[in-house]
Amino acid sequence: MGAQKNMVRLIDVTNRDGVQTSRLGLAKLQKTVLNILLNKMGIFQSEFGFPFTTHEINYLNANLELARKKVIYPMRLSGWIRAIESDVETTTRLTAVKHLNMSISTSDQMIKGKFAGKMDRKGVIKAAVGAIKLARKRGIKSIGVNAEDASRSDLDYLIEFGQAAKEAGADRIRYCDTLGYDDPFTVYDRVAALASAVKIPIELHTHNDLGMAVAVSIAGAKAAIDSGVDAYINTTVNGMGERAGNADLVSCVLALKYSSGFAGNRKYRMDPSINTRMSWKIAQYASYAFGVPLPVNQVGVGANAFAHESGIHADGALKDRRNYELYDFEELGRGEPEVIDTGRAITAGEYSGIKGFRNVYHRLEVKFHDNKEATRILELVRYANVHTQKPLVRDELIFIAKYPDIAEKIFTMMPPTVKAKRRKK
Known about the structure:
Blueprint: E1 7-12, H1 28-40, E2 45-49, H2 57-68, E3 76-82, H3 85-94, E4 99-105, H4 108-113, H5 121-137, E5 142-148, H6 155-168, E6 172-177, H7 184-198, E7 202-206, H8 213-226, E8 231-235, H9 249-258, E9 269-270, H10 279-290, H11 311-319, H12 354-363, H13 371-388, H14 394-402, H15 404-411, H16 416-424
Parallel strand pairs: 1-2, 1-8, 1-9, 2-3, 3-4, 4-5, 5-6, 6-7, 7-8
Helix pairs in contact: 1-10, 2-15, 3-5, 5-6, 6-7, 7-8, 8-9, 13-15, 14-15
């Protein structure tokens, strides 16, 4: 994918950072369906998991198989690892991942507080450079290097770190506002200094501890482009993530498209692949999968995002929606007629029987050749229900019926001790 000047692309990290939301998470099927939806939305890259953790391996390789089949394409699937050689070795041995982001702390607070004397500033750079070089040697096609806690890092050292990473073969530097410490003004100045000195594309990874994740992301992207390099913004669907969350996907898309400094400004161009009509569907699916209702005032996709009650507002919106709406609800994929089932409902779950199960798929306009095929899909649906612990939705059911072999891989997890015993036999 050739570089284009003044481009802001989106790298969604829901399946890596979003799933680290305390008390919550996603089943591997849900992560897979989310990847498919992100691809349909035109996202440049999905950071889809941890390729050095054994319980993720089957899911990761199954999704990479979907990428080879062009089910997930052209979106890239990237793994997150620590910037250490052992993680690179494990990743390239166990998975077919070709895109990586590798992370290491760069602030004095974390170098002292996390590494506790095991690594200093020079050691951090040495570890990152070693990991980058090994990744290139092992055939990794693109590498983003994450400066964890960049917003609290000494700027001169951050530039030194970025230059070393670039020389070693990094494609991008991820500027991580790990604690949500930056504001739109400080991030602009710091990213501009980093981008101008290192001359490498910048990723913005922000957290919402102070409620500014989207604003900081947009300001950082502007700084990168003003400094002559492309920008990448990390997002999560519905802003899911650790503590107060990350930069919300839909909010970032709308800010890039409609905010006063970006709308119609050819200097700052959002990736033209983005399909905003997927916004409503992906937000609803993530809400269901995580089990977290969308706030009524959620940007673009909340129940009240296009609701007007005040007499003056309602009158103005009815006369011309532009009086009180920056964008149209149809553009977000909202407005389709709602179908409300009444009376009998038959769902597919852990204890479904074959007759009710076939009825569910019949309503989805999926036909089976015979009972043998239907029984196999039913077994997979039962496994899926055990994983998700909730009724499966349309996209999940259709995925299982369409790609049963891949679904089986996704549902299969084996503890390392069991694997070791089988190898000995």
